[in-house]
């Protein structure tokens, strides 16, 4: 599409026509030299959306990384690498460094699917989110970047869905597709900034999208991706696996979504059954289960919701409400 360049800049407005549109690359080809009336001597400019370093394709063409696009994002996990953070410059370690590049200007907007949380640390309010490329913290007052931790994010796919967990100055996050879960400890540095230092990282908690909950020092959630999975319990401070449902001959709770209320874990398996679990560091303790009626043939991904003595279960376009108050 022809565009006009003014003062060395040009703008292209994209109007989405289908669900989840994505821009994977942009190539700018000069059409002529206005001063001479002939062909321009400038070469084509190729930009590969979502990358933080140059990319050479099969024909030998070099594509430049993102350099700050406004108001857009790539479509995570479909047809290439998603846009967002370009990692920590200057060789910073996995728990430190400042992000760069990406769609959405400085720092990028590759938010993936995970919801942010608000935390208070060291007298400062900040927002923490597992983005398409990293777990990050930004200041609530002005949006300034505070810290970054890369390992829990599956940076190639960018399909990071689970909400982070904050407790006692530490943040946990996890994703699937070969990634895993990691815990960082936040500390103040000598300049008043915030550092995130890794406490542990484990591939025994590759949480796809069902979420993880923290109860009495234990993390409960599913370990597994598109191929299925099982419920696992890890020690929050050490990452030690306390128990799991991995063995096929006893897998009573497969991959699912999790919520906690009134000292009980409500676990909605991907295949449909809803299981009530008593939290325990020692073993899996089931306190009841039932099958939702009128189950569709789709995987059950919606999280269970508990409010005012009611349990809400959604299956595609149908919502079920159950009275779970003590009798």
Topology:
Elements: E1 25-28, E2 45-48, E3 55-56, E4 62-63, E5 117-121, E6 124-130, E7 135-139, E8 145-149, E9 165-167, E10 170-175, E11 180-188, E12 194-202, E13 212-215, E14 218-223, E15 230-235, E16 241-244, E17 256-261, E18 264-269, E19 274-278, E20 285-290, E21 305-307, E22 310-315, E23 318-323
Antiparallel strand pairs: 1-2, 3-4, 5-6, 6-7, 7-8, 9-10, 10-11, 11-12, 13-14, 14-15, 15-16, 17-18, 18-19, 19-20, 21-22, 22-23
Short structural description:
This protein has 327 residues and is mainly β.
Mean pLDDT over the full residue set: 81
Main sheet strand line-up: 5-6-7-8
Strand and helix order = EEEEEEEEEEEEEEEEEEEEEEE
Kindly provide the radius of gyration, computed on alpha-carbon positions and rounded to a whole number of angstroms: 23 Å
Main sheet specs: 4 strands, antiparallel
Q: What percent of the residues sit in helical stretches (DSSP H or I)?
A: under 10%
In DSSP terms, counting alpha (H) and pi (I) runs of 4 or more, how many helices?
Answer: 0
- How much of the sequence lies in strands comes to 35-45%
What would the principal axes of the Cα set say about the shape? globular
